[in-house]
Amino acid sequence: MILEKLQRLGMAASYDSCGGGKEKSYREWGIPAQYQNFIYNCTQTSENVFVNGSMKSKYKSQKGVPLYQKHETTVAEKKDLMNKMNDFLPHAKEERLNKPNKCLLMKVLQDNTCMHDCKYCVNSGCKNHKENLEPEEIADSFLHLHKQGYLTGLFLSSAVHGDAEKSTEKMIASAKLLRERGYKGYIHLKVLPDAPTHLIEEMALYANRLSVNIEATTTQGFSELTSTKDYKEGILRKVRNLDSIKHESDKQSKERGETRSNYFCDIAPIENGKDYRFKSFTTQIILGANEETDSDIVSRMNSLYEDTSLYRTYFSAFSPVEGTPLGKKDAESKAREHRLYETDWLFRIYGFSKKIVEKGLNEKGNFSLCVDVKQAIASSMPELFPLDPNTAPREELLLVPGLGPKSADKIMQVREEHKLNNFEDLAKHGVRLRKPKTYLALEGRQTNLFGF
Question: What is the mean pLDDT of residues 26-49?
Fold first, then answer.
């Protein structure tokens, strides 16, 4: 009976992006068929909070230092991190489940009966198969699967059944019960629209990550999706709440002497119900369910990253659900979703400004589905290229398609040691040049691929 609930509520939760994939989890980890509706492989996403999270935190903690001057993780440090990870992950009988650094999340809704009328959502359109899980059912099933090695964490969301307060309290009860039973691993809870601030603060006591889905980027675009939610008060104010709690959580972590702020499991002593476990928050935007342009999305992303400590943005290309008001609307292209992920990367990893990112937009305010965003930006700046890698500043090197932060810093490191005379000199230092050499010139020489 509980398994059937998990399967249905897992399918209902699949519309809420966390960057994970189910098909890959079947192939790589051999998850049994009866669990495939609600177990996601998130090993290559930011939900993976074990070794990858720790490695990234080492780089982020050294702000202003070029990547080539930053601390490289030693073999001994990696082994130490693996050992810490194993403290949270029981050894599975099936060896394929004991691969290092796995991240398999149980992803379900606590309840799929919703009071809201979101036009795209399966939970508002479906009148049958209404289910809910009690906190004890979630805790029992999660710990059973965790003990067998099928799970490393929980991603718990819910429809708003009755009101946001009651639904949020039920999610908190589930997370709290897991902590009281000794679980110290990863929990991600979804903040519901209109959830009271005091309950969001309580969620932060038990969850390592929280998220609130803004779904749209403008008030008008949001009104196209639902008539029962308030965008500014019910959604954007929750983002502000999370940002405020994040600052308080960082303060507590510092007082506890934690050095790895992105290592989300409880490696430091944490008192249940008193200390924040919360370390980061994310959001999600639906693409193609309304008339918003990529320009609208870029503006909202920029303001969120500039004004808050938002960790990252997820995107979900609209897919019609039979029985909903948008059930006959065309599905959004996955290529558009990919372009927005590229944009998010340029904001967060490359440090591009809104002004630079907007250069990649076309006259309709959208990114091309055929050309990656960074290449579109470069094509809009023909006066800048070709660049001489011997003299170009770092911010200009980052504009070269195919050059990332590490490659740009490697070029700067090599040119400090000696002048770059040919492309082979860069290649032997590990700089990939298939794309970049079209935009670079050395000693006046340049490949004939350049075509602005």
Answer: 80
